[in-house]
Structures are given as structure tokens and as C-alpha cells.
Amino acid sequence: MSDNAVCSIDGCDKPRYGRYRLCSMHRSRLDRTGSTGPVGPLVPPLSERFWPRVDTTGECWLWSGPVSQHGYGILGVDGERTDAHRVAYALSKGPITAGQVIRHSCDTPRCVRPAHLLEGSQRDNIIDMGTRDRHPNYHPRAVREEIIRRQLAGERVCDIARDLGVKYTMAHAVVHRSRHAAD
Length: 183
Description:
By secondary structure, the chain is of the alpha+beta class.
């Protein structure tokens, strides 16, 4: 192929087409962007995509983008589905330590306000959920102690569970664990 038949952009040796003396890639780039130069990032930086989707008018800053079936904000980051509260934490406070979760001090799944987000272990998260009565199988120590006290006094576990408003299976597990702990 002669020099006249290749793209006029330095370093490009693809065949040229038409009066612009450009290959199809550079011609397409010219039509799309108005320039034959390198194309910048196709996806804007994460912070530019994230913060405009946050409603900061209330005490909690609520994610207005897609939400998971459990009520947590979600978005795509590097081709992966990511929780919005984890992105907010990373953008505002830095990288998340491996193996750690991001907990909400406000118990609002859509909240992404950095002041409401805490890094911690999954155990910390479960304890938080239990002390705030949000975990279906965990109840505060006082409830567990009441179940054991009443069972030792001779009450049936099903009656105790009904009176305290907990699941029978949870009350039974508390009694079962307390028997093994006494051994």
C-alpha cells in the first residue's frame, strides 16, 4: 500500500477512506468527538457519578439510584455491583480494610452520609443489629436472660416466646445453648 493510501494520522497505518484521508476509526472518532485525538475516559470519575445521585436535604443522605431487594443503594463500579454506602465511605474516608463491613449508625439502608458510616467487623454489625432489635435471631442479653430464668422456673418455651414476642425457635435456641454452657 502506498503512503497516500494510509491514514494521515501519525503512527496509524490503517487504510484511509474518502476525502478526509482518515481510516474508519479516526473518521468515526472525528464524527463523535470533533477531534481525531485520543478519547478520554468513557465513564466519568466515580465521585462525579456518585454524589449527584445523593439527596442531602435530610439528616440521612439518601441514595436516589437503584436499590437492592434489601433496601441498600447499589451502583456499578468497574463492572461489579457495589453497595452505595461502601462507595460513600471509600470516597470520603479512604479504602475499606479487607474483610471489614461498613455499618450504618442510623439504621437507614439507603443512607450514604459519611458521618453515619462506620467500619467494623461482621460481628460488630450483628451486635449492632441485635442491640437495635433488627436481627431476627439475636436479642439483647436481658431478653435472653429472661427466657432462661422463666424456663428454669418451669414455664414452657412456647409460652415464654409468645409472651416476649420472640420466635419459638430463637427462645428454644437460647435455652438449648444455656444448657450446654452449664455442662
